[in-house]
């Protein structure tokens, strides 16, 4: 009796001790190979610093196909992990917007979510040989106080297979939701400058990019022509079409020497309309070539044609009776960039839409600068050196693949490191700029993209409203231009490294569909009979042992 009591006391004491240790030392172990249940340190810090309640309303719920069920499960797992580190400040709700008492109420719910910024998706499935269709909202709305941010969970490169795109969406759940939570936080906004004084593009054609940046950053235009760009966390040079003066170039140079971050969206050739037959492309001199060359890059004065991956334009290809026959045809002067470098900025980004793209070369002389390709064309390219006539009639003709052998062309490059000033040995002691002149710089980042139209949105003149950046009115698709720019800004300005959450990689372990079809009955029988057989063996063994014990 005494031994039993002592054993009971020891067990209770041991359990109490384990509980006390668990309350004092918190840890979690993720034993999966790809760390699918882990979140980044930056996300943990973000959640741990929440000082107000954040509500996440997830609308990806209900009866879903297998692929979307996997995305729903990933969202639940990620948010459960978020709640662990949020100190009670994260509230998560799940609902199926298709559930309603009437069709009218269902439509109202759908319209409300669309008005709040979520995009519906039509999914098709086969149930017992019958094709079914359902509208789902693969997204969430993150809310704090009176502010809310829509989050699209279904993202990724649309040129990938549906399974790959869903897997890319799975990988991006943490970053998308954490970015929305960060946006609603009270953290100090970084400062971003936009150089628009050298472009003739109307503000309406830049409005979507500017509005998106303003959600995350404090935006400053260079309207007052500042003496320097010091104090800015990033600087965007948006589609310039006139040359920079030496003084302006000096300010850019010294901004980078001070550890600044800059994104250049520039053209190598100017394309002007000259007739109904096409456009005339001529070299565009922005007086930045020597600056880029010093950094290790060169924007060429040419146009790149891409045979394999290009956007479409509407073109009159003939007549149908007395009416013109207008059809979408591939326009090889508008490459769709779907060849990305291995970097968190471009990981799982949709194709980037370009117009009259030029090529970039990396050059020597900047050995201490790390050069990372970001955007590239396909391997089926052809180069036209400006000046050259760009004729619309070319779109009507079948291209000759033998003339598209130029290989992949670089269209966007990331330069990182400590740069050396272009103005070394050019600033004399008596120059007023000599007092603050920096010969070598602090670590900085520069991105150069050889198409200014990457950041230019289209415009709906009937509604008198700008279209989303990257939207193509011919195919009615929204390409990845905005995501690319915002991810690049995140990478350059986010000292905490939340952008690194985009590096998560989840491997697809797909089943062999052919083997499943051939061995379907075997596996069904095995799943049905094996549990029964195991229970029978266990019962028989137990009966045998009991019989021996009490014989």
TrEMBL record:
<feature type="domain" description="ABC-type uncharacterised transport system">
    <location>
        <begin position="190"/>
        <end position="487"/>
    </location>
</feature>
<dbReference type="Pfam" id="PF09822">
    <property type="entry name" value="ABC_transp_aux"/>
</dbReference>
<keyword id="KW-0472">Membrane</keyword>
<dbReference type="InterPro" id="IPR019863">
    <property type="entry name" value="Motility-assoc_ABC-rel_GldG"/>
</dbReference>
<protein>
    <submittedName>
        <fullName>Gliding motility-associated ABC transporter substrate-binding protein GldG</fullName>
    </submittedName>
</protein>
<keyword id="KW-0812">Transmembrane</keyword>
<feature type="domain" description="DUF7088">
    <location>
        <begin position="33"/>
        <end position="143"/>
    </location>
</feature>
<dbReference type="Pfam" id="PF23357">
    <property type="entry name" value="DUF7088"/>
</dbReference>
<dbReference type="InterPro" id="IPR019196">
    <property type="entry name" value="ABC_transp_unknown"/>
</dbReference>
<dbReference type="InterPro" id="IPR055396">
    <property type="entry name" value="DUF7088"/>
</dbReference>
<feature type="transmembrane region" description="Helical">
    <location>
        <begin position="522"/>
        <end position="545"/>
    </location>
</feature>
<keyword id="KW-1133">Transmembrane helix</keyword>
């Amino acid at each position: 009796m005494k031994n039993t009591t002592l054993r009971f006391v020891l067990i209770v004491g041991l359990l109490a001790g384990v509980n006390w240790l668990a309350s004092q030392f918190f840890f979690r172990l993720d034993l999966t190979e790809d760390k699918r249940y882990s979140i980044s340190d930056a996300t943990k810090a973000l959640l741990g610093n929440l000082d107000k309640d954040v509500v996440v309303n997830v609308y990806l719920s209900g009866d879903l196909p297998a692929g979307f069920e996997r995305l729903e499960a990933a969202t639940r797992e990620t948010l459960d992990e978020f709640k662990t580190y949020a100190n009670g400040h994260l509230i998560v709700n799940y609902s199926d917007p298709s559930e309603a008492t009437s069709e009218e109420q269902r439509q109202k719910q759908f319209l409300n979510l669309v008005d709040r910024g979520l995009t519906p998706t039509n999914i098709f499935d086969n149930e017992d040989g019958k094709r079914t269709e359902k509208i789902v909202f693969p997204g969430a709305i993150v809310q704090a106080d009176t502010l809310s941010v829509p989050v699209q969970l279904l993202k990724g490169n649309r040129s990938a297979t549906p399974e790959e795109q869903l897997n890319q969406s799975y990988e991006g759940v943490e970053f998308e939701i954490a970015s929305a939570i960060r946006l609603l936080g009270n953290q100090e906004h970084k400062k971003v400058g936009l150089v628009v004084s050298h472009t003739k593009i109307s503000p309406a054609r830049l409005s979507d990019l500017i509005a998106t940046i303003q959600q995350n950053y404090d935006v400053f235009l260079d309207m007052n022509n500042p003496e320097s760009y010091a104090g800015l966390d990033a600087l965007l040079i948006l589609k310039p079409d006139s040359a920079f003066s030496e003084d302006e170039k000096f300010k850019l140079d010294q901004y980078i020497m001070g550890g600044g971050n800059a994104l250049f969206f520039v053209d190598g050739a100017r394309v002007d309309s000259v007739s109904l037959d096409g456009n005339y492309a001529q070299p565009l001199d922005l007086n930045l070539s020597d600056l880029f060359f010093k950094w290790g890059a060169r924007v060429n004065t040419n146009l790149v044609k891409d045979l394999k991956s290009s956007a479409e334009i509407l073109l009159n290809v003939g007549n149908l009776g007395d009416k013109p026959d207008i059809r979408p045809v591939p326009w090889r002067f508008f490459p769709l960039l779907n060849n990305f470098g291995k970097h968190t900025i471009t990981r799982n980004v949709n194709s980037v839409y370009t117009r009259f793209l030029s090529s970039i070369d990396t050059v020597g002389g900047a050995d201490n600068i790390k050069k990372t390709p970001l955007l590239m064309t396909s391997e089926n390219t052809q180069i036209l050196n400006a000046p050259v006539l760009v004729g619309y009639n070319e779109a009507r003709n079948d291209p000759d693949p033998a003339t598209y052998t130029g290989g992949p062309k670089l269209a966007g490059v990331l330069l990182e490191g400590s740069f050396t000033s272009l103005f070394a040995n050019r600033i004399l002691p008596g120059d007023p700029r000599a007092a603050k002149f920096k010969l070598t710089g602090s670590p900085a980042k520069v991105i150069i993209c050889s198409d200014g139209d990457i950041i230019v949105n289209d415009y709906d003149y009937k509604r008198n409203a700008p279209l989303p950046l990257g939207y193509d009115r011919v195919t009615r698709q929204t390409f990845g231009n905005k995501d690319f720019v915002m991810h690049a800004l995140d990478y350059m300005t986010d000292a905490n490294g939340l952008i690194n959450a985009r590096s998560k990689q989840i491997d697809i372990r797909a089943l062999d569909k052919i083997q499943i079809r051939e061995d379907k009955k075997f596996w069904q029988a095995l799943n049905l009979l094996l549990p029964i057989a195991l229970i029978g063996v266990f019962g028989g063994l137990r009966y045998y042992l009991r019989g021996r014990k009490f014989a």
